[in-house]
Amino acid sequence: MKSDQAIKLLNDEGLRLDGRRLDELRPLKIEVGVLKNADGSAYIEHGKNKIIVAVYGPREVHPKHLTLPDRAIVRVRYHMAPFSVPERKSPAPSRREIELSKVIREALEPAILVEKFPRTAIDVFIEVLQADGGTRCASITAAAVALADAGIPMKDLVAAVAVGKINGKIALDLNHLEDQYGEGDMPVAMMPGLKTITLLQADGIFSKEEFKQALDLAISGIQVIYRKQREALKKKYEKMIRTVTGGGS
Ligand code: UDP
Q1: Is ligand 1 within 6 A of the CB of residue 46?
Q2: Which stretch of DSSP H or E encloses residue 28?
Q3: Atom 1 of ligand 1, nearest CA residue
Q4: Can you tell me the distance from the alpha carbon of 211 to that of 244, in angstroms, rounded to the nearest whole number?
Q5: Is the distance from the beta carbon of residue 133 to the nearest atom of ligand 1 less than 6 Å?
Q6: What is the average pLDDT value for the chain, to the nearest integer?
Q7: Where does residue 230 rank: exposed (0-12), middle (13-18), buried (19+ CB within 10 A)?
Q8: Which segments of the chain have a pLDDT < 70?
Q9: Whose CA is nearest to atom 12 of ligand 1?
């Protein structure tokens, strides 16, 4: 939630509280295949966010009446651990988590070839272990990689980042403080290879020029994230090849 209180989020050199430039992403690390029991999984550290994603499916649908005759259904559960934020979060699903589960599903679904698996379900479980702003975007980035790891056919990966306005300037990849005390934030997800936006939300007021600048900045950040996603997937398969061919791990 935004605060009405104004705080200085940029220093005299134009650097942010965590030392970043306005167009700089937070450090990003993605790992693939981190859970043995899931069909696909991924772990992401995006700044101070730490999120784990497990994907199951395509598998039988329970309860049966949810089945669709011509396509798979995609179900997403976004959940924050009680210890993921400074104030203990109740483990019961909040309205925010229900909304984010829907938003994340809608951002991922256009990339999945759901028509290939009629009468099945693809389940995506997202556990936020530590949150620091932008968790919906980091969840989308990690979930796309976990879906690919599960071998689910996709048109493209989906990568996401939030941009926003802090002290009147457009900034890439807001952290929690910037999200809370900034003038606006705008989460964007896209299938970068297909140049298709699958999520665009905006909170706050952006002029037409600011909106354009923010979107361009998001797209440039997404290209970097997309590269990291593909590198993470490649790394898993290179490791697998080395194991199979006896080249060690
Ligand atoms: N947050 C929190 N307690 C909550 C929910 C959120 O402290 O119960 C923090 C958390 O750091 C989160 C940030 O507020 O990342 C921004 O939340 P928002 O709803 O804007 O979603 P996000 O930016 O994580 O996609």
Answers
A1: no
A2: strand 28-32
A3: 85
A4: 49
A5: yes
A6: 96
A7: middle
A8: 1, 248-249
A9: 133
- Nearest Cα residue to atom 22 of ligand 1: 134
**Which residue carries 């002290």 as its tokens?**
167
pLDDT at 161: 98
Mutate to test the pocket of ligand 1, among 135, 175, 185 (most ligand atoms within 8 A of CB): 135
> Which atom of ligand 1 is nearest to 86's Cα?
7
- Distance, in Å, from the CA atom of 1 to the CA atom of 3, rounded to the nearest integer, reads 7
Note the pLDDT tens digit of each residue in 190-222.
Answer: 999 999 999 999 999 999 999 999 999 999 999
DSSP state, 85?
A: S
Smallest Cα–Cα separation from 131: which of 89, 77, 191, 93? 89
Q: Is 101 in the pocket of ligand 1 (CB under 6 A)?
A: no
Closest CA to 112 of 73, 138, 68, 77: 73
Task: Tell me how far apart the alpha carbons of residues 42 and 146 are, in angstroms, rounded to a whole number.
Answer: 5
Position 6 scores a pLDDT of: 72
User: Which residue, chain included where needed, has tokens 């140049």?
Assistant: 195
pLDDT in tens, 31-58: 999 999 999 999 999 999 999 999 999 9
What is the CATH class of 28-244? alpha beta
Q: How far is CA 85 from CA 90, 129, 180, 182, 199, in A?
A: 11, 9, 14, 19, 25
Contact call for residues 95 and 87 (beta carbons, < 8 A): no
Angstrom distance (rounded) from CA 118 to CA 130: 36
